[in-house]
Structures are given as structure tokens and as C-alpha cells.
Amino acid sequence: QVQLVESGGDLVQPGGSLTLSCTVSGSDLDIDLMAWYRQAPGKERELVAEITSGLDTNYEDSVKGRFRVARDVAKNTAYLLMEKLLPEDTAVYYCYAQEWRDYEEYIHWGQGTQVTVSS
Fold it and tell me: What is the dihedral of CA 5, 8, 10, 12, to 10 degrees?
């Protein structure tokens, strides 16, 4: 059974920094894309950043230059390094992993971790 475990959410002041981590556990894993999404109250879930197994990255426009996604492919762990945090970054952040198994694609989600940016 594949599980995603996230950590790192916290309350932080505007302008502060925070790092989220997400580890995928399971046997014989073949994880391609990993990503971070977020969902603020009353809003739809949106993509924040994504990273392939080849370490290609993509970012949502509002976080470019402030957030950085990283990955330890061998450990099936992804990180989201967030700097210059703004109140509008407040949301539940979800980890996403795309697994390939026997030529079938499986999508997995983490349970979410709360990030609150407030003074």
C-alpha cells in the first residue's frame, strides 16, 4: 500500500520561511511526477509546484521566485521550500505523487498540512 506522509506545516509571520516535506512509502515504487497543491478556504485546490523524476520543475506564477521544489529521488521524498511568505499563501498544502505500476498510472495524495501566514 502506498502512503504519502507530509510534514512541516506551521504558523509563520509574513515574510517568513517554511519547508514542507513529503515521503512516499511502499514497495517497488516507481514514482514519476511529484507535486504540491494547496487549497485555501472557499477556493479550489491549485497546483503550486511540480517536479519530475528527472528534476524538471514547474511553478504557479504567484510563487515563482519565492518557492522552490526539490526532490530526493532515491528516498521518494519531495520538499517545498517557501520563502517571503504572504498571508495569501495560507492554505492546506497537499502532496501529490504519480506512480507507475505494471504500466498503469496511480495517483496518490497526502493528508495535507496546514500553512498559516499571519502576524
Answer: -150
SS (H, E, C) the chain: CCEEEEECCCEECCCCCEEEEEEEECCCCCEEEEEEEEECCCCCCEEEEEECCCCCEEECHHHCCCEEEEEEHHHCEEEEEECCCCHHHCEEEEEEEEEEECCEEEEEECCCEEEEECC
Decide if pLDDT at 28 tops 90: no
Residue 1 pLDDT: 87
For 61-85, what is each residue's pLDDT tens digit?
A: 999 999 999 999 999 999 999 999 9
Neighbour-count burial of 96, counting CB atoms closer than 10 A to its CB (0-12 exposed, 13-18 middle, 19+ buried) = buried
Give Cβ neighbours of residue 6 (< 8 Å, ≥ 6 apart): 20, 21, 22, 93, 94, 95, 110, 111, 112, 113
